[in-house]
Protein backbone atom coordinates (compact mmCIF):
# COMPACT_ATOMS: atom_id res chain seq x y z
CA UNK A 1 0.00 0.00 0.00
CA UNK A 2 1.34 3.42 -0.88
CA UNK A 3 0.19 6.90 0.14
CA UNK A 4 -1.72 7.55 -3.09
CA UNK A 5 -3.76 4.37 -2.71
CA UNK A 6 -4.34 5.17 0.98
CA UNK A 7 -5.76 8.63 0.14
CA UNK A 8 -7.90 7.19 -2.67
CA UNK A 9 -9.49 4.57 -0.39
CA UNK A 10 -9.60 6.71 2.76
CA UNK A 11 -13.31 7.60 2.54
CA UNK A 12 -14.27 3.94 2.32
CA UNK A 13 -11.83 3.18 5.15
CA UNK A 14 -13.54 5.69 7.45
CA UNK A 15 -16.98 4.39 6.47
CA UNK A 16 -15.76 0.80 7.10
CA UNK A 17 -16.91 -0.42 3.66
CA UNK A 18 -13.60 -1.96 2.50
CA UNK A 19 -12.82 -5.66 2.38
CA UNK A 20 -10.91 -7.22 5.24
CA UNK A 21 -7.66 -7.33 3.27
CA UNK A 22 -7.93 -3.65 2.35
CA UNK A 23 -8.81 -2.70 5.93
CA UNK A 24 -5.69 -4.49 7.19
CA UNK A 25 -3.54 -2.87 4.51
CA UNK A 26 -4.90 0.58 5.35
CA UNK A 27 -4.33 0.05 9.09
CA UNK A 28 -0.77 -1.18 8.50
CA UNK A 29 0.03 1.75 6.23
CA UNK A 30 -1.43 4.19 8.76
CA UNK A 31 0.85 2.75 11.43
CA UNK A 32 3.95 2.99 9.21
CA UNK A 33 3.37 6.35 7.47
CA UNK A 34 3.27 9.49 9.62
CA UNK A 35 1.75 11.69 6.88
CA UNK A 36 -1.17 9.32 6.25
CA UNK A 37 -1.68 8.80 9.98
CA UNK A 38 -1.95 12.58 10.46
CA UNK A 39 -4.40 12.81 7.54
CA UNK A 40 -6.57 10.10 9.07
CA UNK A 41 -6.52 11.85 12.45
CA UNK A 42 -7.46 15.25 10.97
CA UNK A 43 -10.36 13.80 8.95
CA UNK A 44 -11.71 11.79 11.88
CA UNK A 45 -11.54 14.83 14.21
CA UNK A 46 -13.32 17.03 11.68
CA UNK A 47 -16.07 14.42 11.28
CA UNK A 48 -16.39 14.16 15.04
CA UNK A 49 -16.84 17.94 15.34
CA UNK A 50 -19.35 18.07 12.48
CA UNK A 51 -21.43 15.20 13.89
CA UNK A 52 -21.56 16.74 17.38
CA UNK A 53 -22.66 20.23 16.32
CA UNK A 54 -26.12 21.27 17.49
CA UNK A 55 -28.91 21.25 14.92
CA UNK A 56 -30.06 24.62 13.65
CA UNK A 57 -33.78 25.39 13.87
CA UNK A 58 -35.10 27.98 11.39
CA UNK A 59 -37.57 30.59 12.57
CA UNK A 60 -41.33 30.03 12.13
CA UNK A 61 -41.68 32.54 9.25
CA UNK A 62 -38.61 31.21 7.38
CA UNK A 63 -40.58 29.15 4.81
CA UNK A 64 -42.74 32.14 3.78
CA UNK A 65 -39.76 34.48 3.44
CA UNK A 66 -37.87 31.83 1.41
CA UNK A 67 -40.75 31.39 -1.05
CA UNK A 68 -41.11 35.17 -1.50
CA UNK A 69 -37.37 35.52 -2.17
CA UNK A 70 -37.41 32.63 -4.69
CA UNK A 71 -40.33 34.21 -6.56
CA UNK A 72 -38.50 37.56 -6.65
CA UNK A 73 -35.28 35.93 -7.94
CA UNK A 74 -37.15 33.99 -10.66
CA UNK A 75 -38.74 37.25 -11.90
CA UNK A 76 -35.40 39.06 -11.99
CA UNK A 77 -33.80 36.09 -13.80
CA UNK A 78 -36.49 36.15 -16.50
CA UNK A 79 -36.04 39.90 -16.94
CA UNK A 80 -32.27 39.46 -17.27
CA UNK A 81 -32.78 36.72 -19.91
CA UNK A 82 -35.04 39.02 -21.92
CA UNK A 83 -32.51 41.86 -21.78
CA UNK A 84 -29.66 39.56 -22.84
CA UNK A 85 -31.67 38.17 -25.77
CA UNK A 86 -32.30 41.72 -27.04
CA UNK A 87 -28.59 42.61 -26.63
CA UNK A 88 -27.51 39.38 -28.36
CA UNK A 89 -29.76 40.17 -31.31
CA UNK A 90 -28.08 43.55 -31.68
CA UNK A 91 -24.51 42.27 -31.28
CA UNK A 92 -24.60 38.99 -33.20
CA UNK A 93 -22.93 39.94 -36.48
CA UNK A 94 -20.45 37.80 -38.39
CA UNK A 95 -16.91 39.08 -38.77
CA UNK A 96 -16.06 40.64 -42.12
CA UNK A 97 -13.37 39.39 -44.50
CA UNK A 98 -11.14 42.33 -43.62
CA UNK A 99 -11.35 41.42 -39.91
CA UNK A 100 -10.21 37.87 -40.69
CA UNK A 101 -7.38 39.28 -42.83
CA UNK A 102 -6.21 41.55 -39.99
CA UNK A 103 -6.28 38.63 -37.54
CA UNK A 104 -4.29 36.42 -39.95
CA UNK A 105 -1.71 39.20 -40.50
CA UNK A 106 -1.30 39.61 -36.74
CA UNK A 107 -0.77 35.88 -36.25
CA UNK A 108 1.82 35.77 -39.06
CA UNK A 109 3.63 38.80 -37.63
CA UNK A 110 3.74 37.21 -34.18
CA UNK A 111 5.08 33.96 -35.67
CA UNK A 112 7.76 35.88 -37.59
CA UNK A 113 8.85 37.76 -34.48
CA UNK A 114 9.00 34.53 -32.48
CA UNK A 115 11.08 32.88 -35.20
CA UNK A 116 13.47 35.83 -35.37
CA UNK A 117 13.86 35.83 -31.59
CA UNK A 118 14.74 32.13 -31.53
CA UNK A 119 17.30 32.52 -34.32
CA UNK A 120 19.03 35.31 -32.41
CA UNK A 121 19.19 33.21 -29.26
CA UNK A 122 20.39 30.13 -31.17
CA UNK A 123 23.57 31.94 -32.26
CA UNK A 124 24.37 32.91 -28.68
CA UNK A 125 24.46 29.27 -27.55
CA UNK A 126 26.88 27.99 -30.21
CA UNK A 127 30.17 26.84 -28.73
CA UNK A 128 33.09 27.20 -31.12
CA UNK A 129 36.01 24.80 -30.60
CA UNK A 130 39.30 24.60 -32.40
CA UNK A 131 39.56 21.67 -34.86
CA UNK A 132 41.36 18.56 -33.64
CA UNK A 133 43.77 16.83 -36.01
CA UNK A 134 45.01 13.31 -35.30
CA UNK A 135 48.81 13.17 -35.45
CA UNK A 136 49.21 9.45 -34.81
CA UNK A 137 46.96 6.48 -35.62
CA UNK A 138 45.50 4.61 -32.68
CA UNK A 139 47.60 1.56 -31.77
CA UNK A 140 46.09 -1.83 -32.55
CA UNK A 141 44.98 -3.88 -29.60
CA UNK A 142 46.47 -7.23 -28.78
CA UNK A 143 44.16 -10.24 -28.64
CA UNK A 144 40.88 -9.40 -30.35
CA UNK A 145 41.77 -7.38 -33.41
CA UNK A 146 38.20 -6.75 -34.58
CA UNK A 147 35.63 -5.64 -32.03
CA UNK A 148 32.60 -7.91 -32.08
CA UNK A 149 29.14 -6.40 -31.99
CA UNK A 150 26.95 -8.13 -29.38
CA UNK A 151 23.49 -7.43 -27.98
CA UNK A 152 23.15 -6.92 -24.23
CA UNK A 153 20.41 -9.46 -23.50
CA UNK A 154 20.02 -11.97 -20.68
CA UNK A 155 21.23 -15.51 -21.37
CA UNK A 156 18.66 -18.20 -22.00
CA UNK A 157 16.29 -15.95 -23.93
CA UNK A 158 14.55 -17.85 -26.77
CA UNK A 159 15.53 -16.80 -30.29
CA UNK A 160 12.14 -15.56 -31.60
CA UNK A 161 11.66 -12.82 -28.91
CA UNK A 162 15.26 -11.78 -29.51
CA UNK A 163 14.39 -11.07 -33.14
CA UNK A 164 11.59 -8.70 -32.09
CA UNK A 165 13.68 -7.02 -29.41
CA UNK A 166 16.96 -6.84 -31.38
CA UNK A 167 16.34 -3.36 -32.75
CA UNK A 168 15.48 -1.97 -29.32
CA UNK A 169 18.19 -3.72 -27.27
CA UNK A 170 21.25 -1.69 -26.26
CA UNK A 171 24.33 -2.61 -28.33
CA UNK A 172 27.87 -2.78 -27.00
CA UNK A 173 31.23 -3.52 -28.50
CA UNK A 174 32.94 -6.56 -27.01
CA UNK A 175 36.60 -5.66 -26.64
CA UNK A 176 39.76 -7.03 -25.20
CA UNK A 177 40.18 -6.11 -21.51
CA UNK A 178 43.97 -6.58 -21.59
CA UNK A 179 44.55 -3.62 -23.92
CA UNK A 180 45.97 -0.21 -22.90
Give an account of the 3D structure.
The protein is mostly helical and 180 residues long. It has a domain at 3-51. 61% of the residues lie in helices and 4% in strands. The protein has 6 helices and 2 strands; from the N terminus they run αααααβαβ. It has helices spanning 3-15, 20-32, 34-51, 62-91, 97-124, 159-165, and strands at 148-151, 171-174. It has a two-stranded antiparallel sheet. Helix 1 packs across helix 2, helix 1 packs parallel to helix 3 (34-51) and helix 2 (20-32) crosses helix 3 (34-51). The longest helix is centred in the middle third of the chain and has 30 residues, at 62-91. The protein is flat and about 100 Å long. The protein starts with a helix and ends in a 6-residue tail after the last strand.
Summary keywords:
180 residues; mainly alpha; 2 strands
Number of helices, where a helix is a run of at least 4 consecutive DSSP H or I residues? 6
Q: Total number of β-strand segments?
A: 2
Q: Cα-atom Rg, whole angstroms?
A: 37 Å
Low-confidence stretches: 144-154, 167-176
Largest sheet: 2 strands, antiparallel
Strand content: under 5%
Strand order of the largest sheet: 1-2
Based on helices, strands and strand pairing, what is the structural class?
Answer: mainly alpha
Summarize the helices and strands and which ones pair or pack:
Blueprint (H helix, E strand, L loop, with lengths): L2 H13 L4 H13 L1 H18 L10 H30 L5 H28 L23 E4 L7 H7 L5 E4 L6
Antiparallel strand pairs: 1-2
Helix pairs in contact: 1-2, 1-3, 2-3
Amino acid sequence: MNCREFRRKHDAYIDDTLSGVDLDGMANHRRLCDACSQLDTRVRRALLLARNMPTIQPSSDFAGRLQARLTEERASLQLAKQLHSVEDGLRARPLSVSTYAIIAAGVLAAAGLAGAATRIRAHDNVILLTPVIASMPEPERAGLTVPTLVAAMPAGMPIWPAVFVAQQAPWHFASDTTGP
